[in-house]
Fold this sequence. Notes:
By secondary structure, the protein is of the alpha/beta class. Helices cover 36% and strands 19% of the residues. It is built from eight helices and ten strands. Helix 5 links the parallel strand 9 and strand 10 (157-163). Helix 1 (18-29) crosses helix 7 (194-201). The longest helix is centred in the C-terminal third of the chain and has 14 residues, at 139-152.
Amino acid sequence: MSxxxxxxxxxxxTGIGKxxxxxILCRAWHATYWKPLQTGLADEDGDTPTVRNxxxxxxxxxxxxxxxxxxPLAPLAAGDLENVTVNPGRLVxxxxxxxxxxxxxxxxxxxxxxxxxxxxLIERLNLPVVLVTRSGLGTINHTLxxxxxxxxxxxxxxxxxxxxxxxxxxxxxxxxxxxxxxLFRVPQFDAITETVVSELSGHVPSLDVLQQQIxx
Length: 216
């Protein structure tokens, strides 16, 4: 494992709730946040200011992205439009005194460069994973495939966070067949606010407890 204490937040898809879960983890663990690869800045401000606001983070607990691209595409495609190739030498884990929450871009098989996908970056950074999933129909297949891809690389998985309307049957089957834990749930909300994030952060197990569970 890395000498830096932290987690990598990835998902079974894009737009699935990784940023919200990252904000909840940052609030729960008083963590520092880093999104190394940001795309889609032509359409929005990006995930870093969203997490900073939702988690109420001091600016000192924000690490700027290593790369920030305009197009809402995978980093490889977005970089191509700007004639920029991601240099793996810039994707080095920041060493901070606090726990570090690293958020990925899209799902595991999203291309970062010709010879690297997000799952390769996860393996390179050597952090355990929190996997964000949808709660509804289709999630069992997507989640089990993602868990299998991570385990094939020897990446430790702390557990799964379902986002959306509660579905106990899907949670049960993911935990059983994926041999994993449901860490906490993020139900449907009309609006996501700092208050909501603060409330949900109270349901997050400590990182020490989660690491003990996967080492047993």
